[in-house]
Structure formats: structure tokens, C-alpha cells
Description:
By secondary structure, this protein is of the alpha+beta class. The chain has helices spanning 3-6, 20-30, 37-45, 88-102, 117-125; strands at residues 11-14, 49-55, 58-68, 71-79, 107-112, 129-140, 143-153. The chain has a single domain (3-153), classed as Aminopeptidase, CATH 3.40.630. Coenzyme A is lined by residues 30, 77-79, 84-90, 112, 116-119, 121-122, 125.
Amino acid sequence: MSSLQSSFLPYYEDMNTSHLEDVFNxxxxxxxxxxxKNIFYDCVSNNYLCRVMLINDNLIxxxxxxxxxxxxxxMNLCIQKEYRSLGYGRQLLNYLQQEVKxxxxxxxxxxxxxxxxxxxxxxxxEGYNEIGIRKxxxxxxxxxxxxxxxxxxxxxx
Length: 157
Ligand SMILES: CC(C)(COP(=O)(O)OP(=O)(O)OC[C@H]1O[C@@H](n2cnc3c(N)ncnc32)[C@H](O)[C@@H]1OP(=O)(O)O)[C@@H](O)C(=O)NCCC(=O)NCCS
């Protein structure tokens, strides 16, 4: 592998409070209704599975999930704008899938806005299936937007 390729290899760390500034900056540029810094603080301070993706010491993405028994709920998965459509979102999702498989999770599920076409394409191409709709789940310009619920078995029940 050339040094140019290896310098773009992502690696992962547990999210901690020193990451929150970078995480929040990415969050703000990524969502119309971003999580507050306090929500991230609560997630890292409590029992959520919080990981960051870095390249050359730059934080370029993060994923936050809650684990209840053998189910993983992805609550936030995000890649910094300049690094999108380069395969990092899929790598981050694959990293999480492997990690939760290792702790014996059987099912991963999440919600996604129907308008979020790139995220939907990613999840469907990774084998997630639509399992339902959560009515009026997300805030939106004209009130609320439904969420599509997606799920994937990562191990047999
Ligand atoms: C959704 C998100 C995480 C995808 O990350 P990414 O690094 O851009 O995605 P990847 O480059 O790994 O691409 C994975 C797949 O997503 C889809 N995709 C990515 N960018 C896309 C785009 N601009 N248009 C359509 N589909 C796209 C494609 O199916 C792609 O697979 P392919 O390259 O084999 O066709 C990223 O767009 C993001 O952070 N968005 C803002 C936060 C967000 O919406 N998170 C999801 C909440 S449910």
C-alpha cells in the first residue's frame, strides 16, 4: 500500500469529552435539527456505545448507539461533509456492525428520514429492511416528518 493510501486509512476511538467540540461541529453542518452538545455529553457519560472515526488525527465521523439486551439501536451516524461519498460511511457502519456482533447483538435497527436518500441507499445496500414507519418522528419545516424504520439481523436468533 502506498503512503498516500495509508494516510487516508481511518481508525476508531471510543468517543470521550475531548471529541465533543469536533463532533458537535460536524453535527451542526450535517442536520437541520442537530443534537445539542448536551445530548452528546449525556451519551458519552452514560451507557451508550459511542465511537469516532479519525484520519490523521482529524475526526471525520461518529456513530452513537444504544444496546439493550441483544439489540442495537443506531441513534446517530454521521460523516463530515468533505469526506462523504468516499466510502467512509459504509466503513463506519461495517465497523459498528462487527463490534456489536462481537458482543452478541442479533439485531440492529434505526430510523431514517424518507427524504435522506443517500442514507437510505447506504442502509438498503447493507442489507437493512424496512420494517415500519414511525409517524411524526422528526421535526421538519412544516411540522413533522415520518421516520422509516430499518432493521438487519446480524446473527441468527
Ligand atoms: C449518510 C452518510 C453517513 C453516508 O456516508 P458516506 O460516507 O457519504 O457514504 P459512502 O461514501 O460510504 O457511501 C455508501 C453508500 O451510500 C449511498 N450514497 C452515499 N452518498 C450518496 C449520494 N450523494 N447520493 C446518493 N447515494 C449516496 C450510496 O449507496 C453509497 O454506496 P455506493 O458508493 O456503493 O453507491 C452521510 O451522507 C452523512 O453523514 N449524512 C449526514 C448525516 C446523516 O444523514 N446520517 C444518517 C442518519 S439516518
